[in-house]
Amino acid sequence: MRYFVKIGLEVHLELRTKTKMFCDCLNDPAEKTPNINICPVCLGHPGTLPVINREAVRKVIKAGLALNCHILEEPRFDRKNYFYPDLPKNYQISQLYQPLCRNGFLEIGGNKIRIREIHLEEDTGRLIHSSEGDYSLVDFNRAGVPLMELVTEPDITSAKKAGEFSRELQLIFRYLDISDADMEKGQMRVEINISLSKSQSDFGTKVEVKNLNSFRAVERAAEYEIKRQSKLLDEGKKVVQETRGWDPSKEVTFSQREKEEAQDYRYFPEPDLPPLHITQDIIDRLKAEIPELPDKKRQRLQRQYGLGKEAVEVFVQNKDLGEYFENVMSELRRWIRDIEKKSKVEEKEFFELARLCSNYMITDLQGLLKGASVEDENFLISPEDFAEFVTLIYKGTLSSKIAKTVLQEMFSKGLDPSCIIEEKGLALISSQSEIEKIVKEIVSQNPKPVEDYKKGKENALQFLVGKVMAKTKGRADPKVTRETLLRILGSS
Ligand SMILES: [Zn+2]
Fold this sequence. Notes:
The protein is of the alpha+beta class. It has three domains: 4-288, no CATH class; 292-424, no CATH class; 432-491, Arc Repressor Mutant, subunit A. Helix content is 42%, strand content 18%. The protein is built from 15 helices and 14 strands. The strands form three sheets. A nine-stranded mixed sheet has the order 2-5-6-9-1-10-11-12-13. Strands 4-3-14 form a three-stranded antiparallel sheet, with no helix packed on it. It has a two-stranded antiparallel sheet with strand order 7-8. Helix 12 (432-445) packs across helix 15 (478-491) and helix 14 (459-471) packs across helix 15 (478-491). The protein is elongated, with a radius of gyration of 31 Å. It starts with a strand and ends with a helix. 33% of the residues are buried. The mean pLDDT is 92. The structure holds zinc ion (ZN).
């Protein structure tokens, strides 16, 4: 039997700020030496008072605005009381009653995923358990690091969509520059709530899966739960409301704890912190700082350059390369206008240049970069030079084979393409007479393939073209070569 799947996500994000959420300690969760970014405030010493980190608040509001949320006028902080060894205060400062943002949404692939709220809290420290399990050590470097929590409504209907939604969120957080959102480093952590029901309007029993530290884990855990819960329901059994963990090596979820009736954290308004006042002026200023977001960029790249879906996605995912591409394209537009002396840039011609440019950037240039960024100091190809390189291919001065050699030289030496072509004698030979001379030579040196061709063996012609190419080190214009060969073989 088929069931309706409802998935909601809880996403935690460590914000990249200079200092921690409520004190002046450095916010550096990657610090290797334990317990050095600590102070009486983040260690919860009696008599200390927290001070709100303005930068963290601004970053959460930006996330809220990017995700179409309502920003509350008077957000507050609340105390969530619980004991855990890596939580030195025995409570966590979080937000329950008046979070920073509510009622947003993100549209993805035509589906609207509603966002219930985004709030701000502090991270806990970290426990390191000994391999024998006889003791645990605690590192408070992470305690008090600003942590954003985003909660969606259960609007996601498949495992694949849960993965897509998480990936898009990561991309948006990176565009907003509020966090590196690296899941492997724990900067972004995803939990899923998943329930199955027989009708669209029903809610089944909710199961929570924690500790998902990759997008693959999000997808696989959701898939696993859909199968597991379907099987239980098919057999007429009940799904238990519980929290489950994810074992990435076995790719299974396992029961961690059954949910008691709503845990009582005895939340109450944080008495040591005043409410915030978020004015329209603050919101307007933050709105103005939000860059073009991934989805807008996808639509624009497609419209402006006529790029296909896959190329667009490469430039959206790899922001640096995307910006470099656009810089090269503005050089190319200038080239058409000024050098080709055209009053109007034809869209067709411009799109053709964009296609060439994106192909060489995505396959060849990315291959040379090997994961490095075009923003790196030792990346030597200026947008002007890359644009010139594209025009040389466009005009037929460079064959695709030679183009690769030229790009390699540009990449390693930073020289401009015409300089390399001249220095290395790489220009394409397209002169009819020059090619004819070489073709005649090849024909007289290879009587056997010539004979074969005359007997009707088509691939003998390809062999002779190859010989001409070898002789000219790939510089002979392939079209002229082929035509000349056909003409000479036909007349002899
Ligand atoms: Zn501190």
